[in-house]
């Protein structure tokens, strides 16, 4: 990794418009400490509007994606500082997950290993998720005596059918990457040895799409789930019109290349963005 955050607990490099960001506390299985939460926000901030970043991938150094919240630094030590300490730590962790949920660029969770508890926050925050078949997912909170907080229960209920969510939260048993894909926690599971290539392949497809349309699309998918059909219909009209204020040429170019130039078919792939960029 080319660069690290202020305290070294997040690593990142940008290669061919993909920002590869890593939880970087392998000796602590990438547990999320307050320091890591602050560093992650710093890195997300630094990368979000860089022109050379088109997609962000979040993975973990070593054997873990993240072993969830740091039980010592995030819970015990902040609690010792009273309500103030607890609330500050919560704001910092929930803060970067929220930033990631509404990130300007498409995001992919690349789950290379352990993913526990609080890890479900960033897992859900990423637009897409790919796991190693060997990875292990668990809501282990119940095993050490708390409920799955920090959004984790909400993530389980959003992504899993009721019975599976209930079992997962109450039993504290782990599932592997393959099962996580079957259950819908992630899009797909592949052997660890192929994980990075598969994610790079997905990222390269996203890089070919109109970036304004991608941001509008990912926000729309999250927003409409809470809306009535009528509200969603209206929201989607407004969202497209708002997107047009950032890019009023993209869709016209997309139609032109198909109808006039006959150089591609939208049913089979994306229009050539470079021709649009050359005109602007
Ligand atoms: N918080 C604090 N420290 C942790 C955490 C954590 N969540 N996870 C691992 N570590 C530390 C260990 O204490 C150990 O530190 P040490 O070397 O100073 O003794 C080091 O990371 C390595 O951990 P091991 O347990 O030795 O690693 P192993 O590979 O044998 O096991 C496993 C990995 C299964 C992930 C285990 O570390 C574990 O169960 N971690 C806790 C998982 C968990 O329940 N997280 C909380 C979820 S709930 C929530 O996030 C709200």
From TrEMBL:
Which molecular function terms from Gene Ontology are attached? catalytic activity
Q: What is this protein called?
A: Trans-feruloyl-CoA hydratase / vanillin synthase
What InterPro entries does the annotation carry?
ClpP/crotonase-like_dom_sf, Enoyl-CoA_hydra/iso, Enoyl-CoA_Hydratase/Isomerase
Record the organism. Sphingomonas guangdongensis
Indicate the family of this protein: Belongs to the enoyl-CoA hydratase/isomerase family.
One of this protein's GO BP terms? isoprenoid catabolic process
């Amino acid at each position: 990794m080319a660069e690290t955050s202020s305290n070294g607990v997040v690593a990142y490099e940008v290669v061919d418009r993909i920002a590869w960001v890593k939880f970087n506390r392998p000796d602590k299985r990438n547990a999320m400490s307050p320091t890591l939460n602050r560093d992650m926000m710093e890195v997300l901030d630094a990368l979000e509007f860089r022109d050379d970043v088109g997609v962000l991938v979040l993975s973990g150094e070593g054997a873990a994606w993240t072993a969830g919240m740091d039980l010592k630094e995030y819970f015990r030590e902040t609690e010792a500082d009273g309500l103030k300490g607890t609330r500050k730590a919560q704001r910092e962790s929930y803060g970067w997950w929220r930033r990631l949920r509404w990130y300007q660029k498409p995001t992919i969770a690349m789950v290379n290993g352990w993913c526990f508890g609080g890890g479900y926050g960033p897992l859900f925050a990423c637009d897409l998720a790919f796991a190693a078949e060997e990875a292990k997912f668990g809501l282990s909170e119940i095993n050490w005596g708390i409920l799955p907080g920090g959004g984790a229960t909400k993530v389980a209920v959003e992504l899993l059918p009721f019975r599976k969510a209930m079992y997962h939260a109450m039993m504290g048993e782990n599932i592997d990457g393959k099962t996580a894909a079957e259950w819908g926690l992630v899009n797909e599971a592949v052997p660890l040895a192929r994980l990075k290539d598969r994610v790079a392949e997905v990222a390269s497809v996203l890089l070919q799409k109109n970036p304004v349309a991608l941001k509008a699309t990912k926000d729309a998918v999250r927003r409409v789930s809470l809306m009535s059909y009528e509200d969603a219909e209206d929201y989607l009209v407004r969202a497209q019109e708002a997107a047009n204020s950032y890019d009023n040429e993209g869709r016209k170019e997309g139609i032109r290349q198909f109808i006039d130039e006959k150089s591609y078919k939208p049913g089979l792939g994306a229009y050539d963005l470079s021709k649009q960029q050359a005109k602007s």
